[in-house]
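We modelled the chain as a single entity of 347 amino acids. Its sequence is:
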Amino acid sequence: MSANVMHIPELLANLAVKDIKVWVEGDRLRCNAPAGTLTAESSDQLRNRKGEIIAFLNMATAAARQQPAIIPLQSRGTRTPIYAVPGHIGAPFSFSDLSKHLGGDQPFYALQPPGFDGQSEPMDRVEDIAKYFARQIVEYQPTGPYIIAGYCSGAATAFELAKILCGRGAEIPCVALFGPLHPTTFSKLPRLLYFNASRSAESLLREMAKMPTFGARLRHFGSRLRNLGERAIVTPIRRSKEPVTSDPVLASRARLKSAAITALRRYIPTPYSGRVCIFLPNKAWMRSGAAPHRWLRVVPHAEFYFGPEDCNDTLMLEEPDAPAIAELYRQATQKAERSAIGSASHE
């Protein structure tokens, strides 16, 4: 396998974000893209790297027949493999940038939840999703050690998954939670409203900061206000008279998101004695509606690592912030290695 193939997941993830679908029919690569979304650069990449993309998709399809939950973003390397649970939209490629910046020696597998493929039904209990992932991981890799990771609302599933695997005797050196949402985030409406509102405001400010002139910023601000107004008017009508979407893929993703939020709302974490590292986009996140400090109730020994102040909290695992978060993970790994060496020297 050439070195370039290792970047194919990133390419496909970028296309998927734009709802550009790529698949294989026989020896041909097919593509379906909404009008205006397929750029000349993307077309050139699909054309020039056709063979690599077909090989990767065929490999992923073969693996999916055996373990549909296991999506290999990086299958090579000598370090302890990471198995990562995505957020409530279930997109396994949300870890692509992080995996790339962790380097070629770090095996990294994203976990695709039931319902993401549109063929199976989503689960609405964290415990059931975690048991499903545990079964898939053990079938794929019968013995540990495993690093279990989770992002956003997927942190709760990762936490439960680590407990299940530990209970079965597996070695879990670390549970890595990236920007975790505590279940209480969705149990109180005021907290949820605050969290969503703060994310929207911060996103808008960052977008405006990139504009070259004050006039451009003003026009962008006005455009966002108009969009909000249109959604406020249209959304109630759609709910009462029309289905939210006729696209089966979007409809299945909406069901998955709803089930994931329901699962998180129901989940009550219980104490865990293993190592837990919590990676937050910045120190201000500790005071956000995500309530990361509440994890200390069940893991009082949890370690906290903070990204830079200007980290985009809602996209912390993506460019341009992925390198900083990858470096935090390396710091946590090095800390554990130093601790292990220190313990060995005292024996």
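As a brief sanity check on the tokenised model: The chain has two domains: 1-66, 67-196+246-347. Residues 67-196+246-347 form a domain with the Rossmann fold fold (CATH 3.40.50.1820).
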